[in-house]
Fold these 2 entries.
Entry 1:
Amino acid sequence: MSEPTQTGAQREELVLNMGPHHPSTHGVLRFVVHTDGEIMRKAVPEVGYLHRGLEKLAESQTYAGYMPFTDRINYLEAMFTEQAYAMAVEALLATEIPPRAEFLRVIACELNRIANHHITLGCITMDLGAYTPFVYLLRERESINDLIEALCGNRITHNYLRIGGVAYDVDNIWLGQLESYLDHFEPIINEFEALIVGNEILIKRMQDIAVISRRDAVAWGLTGPNLRASGQDWDVRRDIPYGAYPQFEFDVPVGPLGRGQAGDCYQRFLVRVEEMRQSCRILRQCLAKLPEGDIKAKVPKMIKAPKGESYASVEGARGEMGCYLVSDGGKNPYRVKWRTGSFSAMSIIEHTSPGLMIADLVALVATLDVIAPECDR
Amino acid sequence: MKPAEIQAYLQQKLDKQIEWHEGEKNTGDPWAIVEPDLWVDACQLARHDTELAFDFLRNLTGTDRPDDGKIEVVAHLWSYVRRHAFVLKTTVEREAPKLSSLATIWPAAVWYEREIFDLLGVEFSGHPDLRRIMMPDDWVGHPLRKDYTEQADYRGIPTSRPGYVTAMPEKVDE
């Protein structure tokens, strides 16, 4: 209904469609935006465009055969989905993983985390109108892709982990390459901070925008960097330790850091920058401590998990990446369910959006780092 | 608290028998099953009791069990305050699956329940926005049911088509 206001302007709710093909919707994703002028009354995410039935597909695959499918859940964090799935199966089989394999998993995951944050931070700046940082970060990510390609032959969908360990060992040449990459990359984080993180225009677009309180973040099930930015001191790697993580020292960045307030867009940005630094720290410790030995435990060729169920979670780049696995004793999983960070992050948008400017919706979506395929699976 | 202690605590607080299950070889996670009419009460208690304080609904999903004629709904709970985990389940009839919504206890349940409604066909009473989430609104059937068969076409578009090789004539005469 339109009603004249004191200034004579008409107030009217307008329903706008944003997406599903939009440069800043991160995959095929649609928002139904209810606006009154530039101010949104609410934005309702419509998902499902990238639903590929990866949970249903598991029911027709063998345990080992499902591993490459897990990569497709999120093309930016394939190592984490692999590890969550491997851990869920290993929990049912009660498999002991050789220490070297656990270290190699950590190396793979932390490299993947840095590569993922390159894309995330690049996309945030690109969505807010700065294209150059994205290209800078893509250049850095190429080197990680090269490293991972040398590790397992694949750049994006890695298929590197196996149930009981990893597929390939590393040699000293590769470890040397990793070390020189870290030598090269650590100063780049400082450069990135000097060039972009302190940029006043960027800060103005993010500081105090779309604040998510700690209470809301917990209630809506936000995890990972989004949760930490809201001030909840929580990291699965440290608090429900798995794999080799108890052997490493690292800090968990928690908002508020620097300018802004806990839970705003800028905090979600800063937490991710700091996480890259911590990942480098973990990688350095991996290089120093990497044990010798086997890279794969003995598991039967045809895996039959005993009846029962397990839930395994890892600290993915977008929060808790959980895999719920049900076995009926057969050679295929009976049911697989993925709990992903993007799904919960997407669900809070409708709650957070009222009162935001339309342009700030882009900042909110970008800093929540929602990835449509991970949400839809 | 350990999961078994949580089960005993819930049982005592609710004053009802709660089934307790473990995996065949005691691997993986143990779980508790409550009756569907106790579902909301048990979750309410799990969320608000100061000893349990499950403030984080990690995961909510379902499994189809056609052999028992049931659909299981399972909640994975975590408490940031107490730092413990628990797996709580309930079962609903497969023919007319109905359950009360947890949306008022954990807002995170809103989307999880939409997903269960979409893929397994469980109806949640008291849900603020119960509609399909992954599949189109006019889709037929619930894909994660074990006896699901995909409809032949959707709005006139076939859902499967013969591959190039099988579409070739078997033999071309000279």
Entry 2:
Amino acid sequence: MTAESLKSLTIDEVRDAVAAGRTTATALAEAHYERIEAEDPEIHSYLSLSRERALTQAAKIDAMAQRGEGLPPLAGVPVGIKDVLVMRGAPATASSLILKGYRPPYDATAVERLEAAGAVLLGKLNCDEFAMGSSNENSAYGPVRNPRALDRVPGGSSGGSAAAVAAGFAVATLGTDTGGSIRQPAAFCGVVGVLPTYGRVSRYGLIAFASSLDRVGPFTKNVRDAATMLEVLAGKDAMDATSSDRPADGYVEALEKPIEGLKIGVPEEYFGEGLDPEIRAAVEKALDGLKAAGCVVKKVSLPHTKYAVPTYYVIATAEASSNLSRFDGVRFGLRDAEAKTLSEMFRRTRDAGFGPEVKRRILLGTYALSAGYYDAYYKKAQQVRALLTRDFLTAFHEVDVLIAPVTPTPAFKLGEKTDDPVKMYLEDIYSVAASLAGLCGMSVPCGETAEALPIGVQVLGRHFDEGTMLRVAQAIETGQKN
Amino acid sequence: MSGHSDIKVAGGQAVSGVSQSEVTIEDVRRVAELANLELTAEEEPRMQRDLNAILGYIAQLNELDTSDVPPMAQVGEVLEDRVIHGHGETLRTDKVQPSLDRAEVMAAAPETDGRFFKVPKVIERSAEPKSGGFQAGWERQV
């Protein structure tokens, strides 16, 4: 298998080739590891490889294929896992020093489901520390580079997950999205990334950042693969009380339905000042394509949009300050061995273990929750969150999906925004509102800039209406090929 | 650090808000203590600068009158089926189930006797009762 064919390899191609005996799951895993060893030192998408587990699973799939058994949907598909999801016995760092050396004794539900569906788990992927960041520059183990332009960031926080798919270091990967961490890196790296509805995919085994926002979702090379991954991942899990028991199948089947007559909303607030003209043009072109395919395109208004970023940074940091209190040197990871007392041990361990962005967010969240400020910041943000959600629910009375840019600019250069946290937070301007409202959303490639940097378009769907969202995304993808 | 004040918005209605006076170095130290973080001398001024920048940006939320808006903590609150079934829908039955293996859990701990996690001395004699994890918990409002 050549390097180039590996780069474009899809889930359906893998399953068919393994079933027909044209290749084996073992050969595919080895080919991916070879490519990772040769090229990933430059990209730095993987933090650790789980070779033994991958090859054991690959051998199992190959034995099934040889016996002529029916193969599960992800049979032999090489997959990478963002290192905020735990895999039994494999290092789980969350890209933080505070978890260095920790090997959890269990699998995240999403990981377990992928493996049960035949996926071969190659290893753990780099990301921003505790998924806090928009450029992957906050990893304690070094940044990831964008495979499409090595001087650029891959986006964050799931930068390694997006880069690995773009570079052909995995056929699909898992990422997580709290405020845009799947959609934005997918746009920057030119791959498909799906944010499932809140409650659609179990978070059991996800190292929590902001529990009312965190979600797990796939990165793939095309929309069809994303539907296949989602079908495996979605569903009720007894280990996650926030997971929904609504029916979670038929995503691949939904792709066959025509899009004619669907109502597409274009939120005017997402096309204002600050949007890169090349991105605007590419998104408008995608909209023209949908119109030509028989969709009804209409303008809608989401009037509270400009408040989404400040709302998000209160709620996400408040929840993070609570969630990250568990990293205290007692049960796992780093411990300051010099400390004489318990409270000194807590403080010194956390000071040594957390990077600057994580500390900044813990401080901000603690401040927002502290006596005298709770109403002014946290409660206020929860109220604005309700307004932002109402905006969407009102719009979805009129339209079936919303189309918007994912990011205001294409991938920026490493180091370009690291000095100014507010500037970095504004990266999330088009992604955080859907996170706060719990909607499903995705990024699908829709062109590139004159400098050949990828552009993504965002498709947002109603709660639990991933089927319609995927269908529209596939129409955009098909339009790109024509 | 500032206290509460009423901020006038465009419509002339007063909403509760916090006036934007600067976060001081002392405020940064106090919050760090609440969060069990020990900042270095270099980190403190940088955090002060960043917190002021971020809080200044967040202050724009005060433009909105939200006095009649119930706070939203979870997405499930706005989805109809959750409202119909009410709270408690997602609770599992209270039945003993197998859990993680103790030996495996303990193997990941920095210090353990195999049955319990071991930590440095908890009771501090020089007790000025202001720092430490337990105190911090009381000072927070959630």
